[in-house]
Amino acid sequence: MNERTGQPTTGSGAAMGFICGALLGAGVALLMAPASGNETRRRLGETARRLRRDVPEKARGLANQARSTFGALQEGVRQGITEGRTTYEQQKSVYSNEREGA
Questions:
Q1: Do 66 and 13 meet the contact criterion of CB atoms below 8 Å apart?
Q2: Contact 30, 47 (CB under 8 A)
Q3: Alpha carbon 25 to its chain's center
Q4: So where are the chain's domains?
Q5: 6-50: pLDDT as tens digits
Q6: Cα-based distances in Å from 69 to 17, 24, 56, 74, 83
Q7: What is the pTM of this model?
Q8: Does residue 48 come out as left (phi exceeding 0), alpha (psi in the -120 to 50 range) or beta?
């Protein structure tokens, strides 16, 4: 649970944080690399354009992956509950039959 918003947290938020941090680190590395001012500005511009193009697409992919994973998890829980109920009913019947036969 996100303490600030009260919304449930998702893996996609953490992944986006990681991606943004990595991109910020790449920008800092460009600034720290020994290159001329023109070369550094050119690289920063290219990186900014690439980020503007790639980040929304990656974010959509992460969101889709999170939805898919959550859906699979929900289905697994439903299946586990169904199997648990079935086993419970079977064992309850066995126990009742043994008590009546004893």
A1: no
A2: yes
A3: 22
A4: 34-101
A5: 655 556 667 777 777 777 787 777 677 676 778 878 888 888 888
A6: 19, 28, 20, 9, 21
A7: 0.43
A8: alpha
